[in-house]
């Protein structure tokens, strides 16, 4: 490990040994990673990934840690956080952005140029890379509506490639990247539409006010726990089953929105898993609907 740390030091990339993953998780859950790296540009990200591949070090790439639950045991290998790779370039109706750009910053930059199409993303706490990976969406919009292409680095081959924003790339809360976890998203191109800046701002503000009013933003969480079942709303099903407030260890079904699980203090990954299993079992027994997890366990 000491030799490895010396090699990482020569990369010139910010890093931390025995890094507590809980401090990089919106859920505030997770053990320590052997090493965490924080590249500050796409070039540094590519250099970091190439180095880790050459050294045959297991690698996990994370954006803002807002839709994941890290293992209580941590991660034996390197975790690369892309949150400092946040360059944005806008030309006419096209937006070129690094994977680490926060969605709120991206939608605000688009608004400032009177570009419409990312209003739904304002307030989603993830990064562009994570949003493309999950085909994130809200209020009737999703990344598949605006993403026309994305660049990636292949950890298996060391090659670069491009995915295009068509039906073969995206599905509901899914993307081709979930089928190919070796492909690490570096950047993306989004195509938006010219709009009225005031109208765009008002729509973004309305979505943000709705989030504050309905979601448990005051407690650590990882967003909506379950995908929306066809013909139903997961939160309503859970609430109708009387599960609001159900608690396992430090994990609790939110009293504010039953589609969320919150960390009320000291929650572990196992607490969350056990609570999810209880929810799924109860909802299936009482309604016949099988809830599918949206958050990812790493």
Can you describe this structure in just a few lines?
With 298 residues, the chain is α+β, with helices and mostly antiparallel strands. The chain contains eight helices and 21 strands.
Identify the strand order in the major beta sheet: 6-7-15-11-12
Strand pairing plus helix content: what structural class? alpha+beta
Poorly predicted parts: none
Q: What's the overall geometry?
A: globular
Work out the helix count. Answer: 8
| Average pLDDT for all residues | 94
Number of domains: 3
Radius of gyration: 19 Å
Enter the CATH topology name of the largest domain.
Uridine Diphospho-n-acetylenolpyruvylglucosamine Reductase, domain 3
The counted number of beta strands is: 21
CATH architecture of the largest domain: 2-Layer Sandwich
Helix content: 25-40%
Percent of sequence in beta strands = 25-35%
H/E element order: HEEHEEEEEHEHEEEEEEHEEHEHEEEHE
The end-to-end distance, rounded to whole angstroms, is: 23 Å
Largest sheet: 5 strands, antiparallel
**CATH class label of the largest domain:** Alpha Beta
Give an account of the 3D structure:
This protein is of the alpha+beta class and 298 residues long. The chain has 3 domains: 80 residues, 2-Layer Sandwich (Uridine Diphospho-n-acetylenolpyruvylglucosamine Reductase, domain 2); 112 residues, Uridine Diphospho-n-acetylenolpyruvylglucosamine Reductase, domain 3; 82 residues, Uridine Diphospho-n-acetylenolpyruvylglucosamine Reductase, domain 1. The chain contains 8 helices and 21 strands. The strands form 7 sheets. Strands 6-7-15-11-12 form a 5-stranded antiparallel beta sheet. A 4-stranded mixed beta sheet has the order 1-2-5-3, with helices on one face. The protein has a 4-stranded antiparallel beta sheet with strand order 17-20-19-18. A hairpin with a 2-residue loop joins strand 6 and strand 7. It is globular. The two termini are 23 Å apart. The model has no long low-confidence stretch (mean pLDDT 94).
């Amino acid at each position: 490990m000491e030799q490895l740390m010396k090699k990482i030091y020569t990369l010139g990339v910010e890093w931390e040994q025995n890094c507590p993953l809980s401090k990089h998780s919106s859920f505030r859950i997770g053990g320590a990673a052997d090493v965490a790296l924080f590249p500050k540009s796409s070039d540094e990200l590519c250099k970091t990934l190439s180095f880790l591949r050459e050294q045959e070090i297991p690698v996990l790439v994370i954006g803002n840690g807002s839709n994941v639950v890290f293992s209580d045991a941590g991660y034996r290998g390197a975790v690369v956080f892309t949150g400092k790779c946040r360059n944005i370039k806008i030309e006419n109706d096209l937006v070129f952005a690094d994977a680490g750009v926060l969605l709120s910053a991206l939608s605000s930059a688009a608004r400032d140029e009177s570009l419409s199409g990312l209003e739904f993303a304002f307030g989603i706490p993830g990064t562009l890379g994570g949003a493309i990976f999950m085909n994130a969406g809200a209020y009737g919009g999703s990344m598949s509506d605006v993403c026309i292409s994305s660049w990636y680095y292949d950890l298996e081959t060391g090659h670069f490639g491009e995915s295009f924003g068509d039906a073969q790339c995206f599905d509901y809360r899914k993307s081709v990247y979930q089928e190919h976890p070796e492909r690490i998203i570096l950047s993306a191109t989004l195509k938006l539409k010219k709009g009225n800046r005031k109208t765009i701002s008002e729509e973004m503000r309305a979505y943000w006010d709705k989030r504050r009013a309905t979601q448990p933003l005051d407690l650590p969480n990882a967003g909506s726990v379950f995908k929306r079942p066809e013909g139903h709303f997961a939160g309503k099903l859970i609430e109708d089953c009387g599960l609001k407030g159900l608690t396992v260890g430090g994990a609790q079904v939110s009293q504010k929105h039953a589609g969320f699980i919150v960390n009320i203090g000291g929650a572990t990954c196992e607490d969350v898993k056990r609570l999810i299993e209880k929810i799924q079992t109860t909802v299936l027994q009482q309604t016949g609907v099988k809830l599918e997890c949206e958050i990812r366990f790493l």
